[in-house]
Every structure is written in structure tokens, then in C-alpha cells.
């Protein structure tokens, strides 16, 4: 008699709460997510209060949360929801301050409608359940803008007073970012005095934020091998031999490099 090992159990489905005041959006999201074998929508909510009540009752793995809803809005409900499950903002509101406020209040990521595909949304839901963060381009731009402000230094190498990092500095969030970044053409380009291409400048910003090669690959939707090739070219152009030295040069503090 031949004994066969038991078949491995399929992974448990990601249990999702969808909170949006627009019933058409809720229905569309529920239909899209429910069509995947590994995702289950356990509840819907039309405002922040309903979202908190549903989260208490169903204990979801992921919350998809709109910003602007009647009564209790998404930002007001966010701190409570974030204590129950990782929250992905899914909204039409892409204002930089709204993005930053959502992150300060505990959001794991931020997607703006119209800036992602259905497959990207599915991936983001799965990753959010595993505490891996996603941003769509508008939200990523807001985070990078704050990161660059936080990295602004005066001629003496001191942080400029009006650009010092806030409590929710992008540097802290950058440790686990997996951004849905725009293409090369949407990059802000190289800094004056640095002979980097737009893509290289974008990658150098991410290096300076503390990202690993794997995180940068996820941020830019390229392979780790491509990231390494970019980094080698960056080091050659900046005449640096390490990430620390390149970061110091990029931030205008070459003398601080060790």
C-alpha cells in the first residue's frame, strides 16, 4: 500500500471590508474582488461609522476605505480601523495633504481611482493583508515630495528649518514602500549638478530614503537586476563606491560620508 502525503491546504482567503459611500463603486469592487478564489468581501459600509461597526463584527484582514463619506468620513474612522486591520485608502481624493494625513493616521497605502488596473488592485489587496504597501502615482508623488523636503539641506549641511521631517516623515514610510510609480517620463528628473537621467534620479531618491534593491524594484516595476544596473551607473556618475557615499553626495553632504 502506497501512502501519499496529504495535499497542502490552500491559503486562507483574504477577508476584505469595502467602505465607500457610492453604491456603484461598492458593488463594482465587491464583484471584482469576489471573483478571486483567495479574496472574500465580508462586508460593505457606506460611511465611517458603518465601517467601524462592520470591522468590529467581521474582523477583516484588509479594509478598503474611501476618504470623503457623509457623517463620519474615512480620515475620521481611519485610526480606529487601523487598530483592527491594515487599511488601504481607495478614493478619488489625491490631494497631497490628504495623502499625508491618511498616512499619519495609520493607512498602509493609498490608491487613487483611475490610476491603477484591476490586476494592480488585486495585487494591492493581497499585499496589504501581508503589510506590504502600495501607492498609485499621485499618492506616491505626495510621499516623495515630502521625502525630498525632509532631505533638504542648507549650504552648511544642516536641515532647512521649514523642511524638517514631520512626525510622519516619508523617510519612515519608505522602509516598506511598494509604490505604483509613474513611468520614466513622469519622473522629476535629475538635480542640477548631477549627471543622472530621470530614472536614475528617481532611483537615487529611493536609495536616499533607505530602500533596499528589492523595494526599489517594486517601487519602479523593474527587476532587481535592472535596479543593480542603474545603481552601478549612478555610482560611476557620482564617483561613489557605496550607497552611503552616494546618499551623502545626493543630499549635498559629501563630507559626512564615511
From TrEMBL:
UniProt keyword Phosphoprotein, yes or no: yes
Keyword tags: DNA-binding, Phosphoprotein
Annotated InterPro entries: CheY-like_superfamily (IPR011006), NreC/VraR/RcsB-like_REC (IPR058245), Sig_transdc_resp-reg_C-effctor (IPR016032), Sig_transdc_resp-reg_receiver (IPR001789), Tscrpt_reg_LuxR_C (IPR000792), WalR-like (IPR039420), WH-like_DNA-bd_sf (IPR036388)
HTH luxR-type domain segment(s): 189-254
Gene Ontology molecular function terms on file: DNA binding
Domain Response regulatory: 15-128
Family matches, as SMART domains: HTH_LUXR, REC
Pfam family, one: GerE
PROSITE patterns in the cross-refs: HTH_LUXR_1, HTH_LUXR_2, RESPONSE_REGULATORY
Protein name per the record: DNA-binding response regulator
Organism of provenance: Streptomyces daghestanicus
Organism lineage string: Bacteria, Bacillati, Actinomycetota, Actinomycetes, Kitasatosporales
Amino acid at each position: 500500500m502506497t501512502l501519499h502525503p496529504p495535499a497542502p491546504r490552500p491559503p486562507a482567503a483574504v477577508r476584505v471590508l469595502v467602505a465607500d459611500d457610492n453604491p456603484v463603486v461598492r458593488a463594482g469592487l465587491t464583484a471584482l474582488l469576489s471573483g478571486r478564489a483567495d479574496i472574500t468581501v465580508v462586508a460593505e459600509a457606506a460611511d465611517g461609522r458603518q465601517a467601524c461597526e462592520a470591522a468590529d463584527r467581521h474582523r477583516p484582514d484588509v479594509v478598503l476605505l474611501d476618504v470623503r463619506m457623509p457623517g463620519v468620513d474615512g480620515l475620521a474612522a481611519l485610526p480606529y480601523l487601523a487598530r483592527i486591520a491594515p487599511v488601504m485608502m481607495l478614493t478619488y481624493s489625491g490631494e497631497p495633504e490628504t495623502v499625508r494625513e491618511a498616512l499619519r493616521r495609520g493607512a498602509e497605502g493609498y490608491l487613487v481611482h483611475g490610476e491603477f488596473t484591476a490586476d494592480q488592485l488585486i495585487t494591492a489587496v493581497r499585499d496589504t493583508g501581508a503589510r506590504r504597501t502600495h501607492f498609485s502615482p499621485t499618492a506616491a508623488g505626495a510621499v516623495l515630495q515630502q521625502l525630498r523636503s525632509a532631505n533638504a539641506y542648507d549650504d552648511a549641511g544642516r536641515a532647512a528649518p521649514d523642511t524638517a521631517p514631520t512626525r510622519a516623515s516619508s523617510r519612515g514610510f519608505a522602509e516598506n514602500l511598494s509604490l505604483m510609480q509613474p513611468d520614466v517620463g513622469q519622473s522629476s528628473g535629475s538635480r542640477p549638478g548631477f549627471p543622472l537621467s530621470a530614472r536614475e534620479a528617481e532611483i537615487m531618491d529611493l536609495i536616499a530614503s533607505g530602500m533596499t534593491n528589492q523595494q526599489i524594484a517594486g517601487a519602479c516595476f523593474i527587476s532587481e537586476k535592472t535596479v543593480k544596473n542603474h545603481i552601478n551607473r549612478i555610482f560611476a556618475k557620482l564617483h561613489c563606491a557605496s550607497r552611503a557615499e552616494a546618499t551623502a553626495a545626493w543630499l549635498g553632504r559629501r563630507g559626512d560620508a564615511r
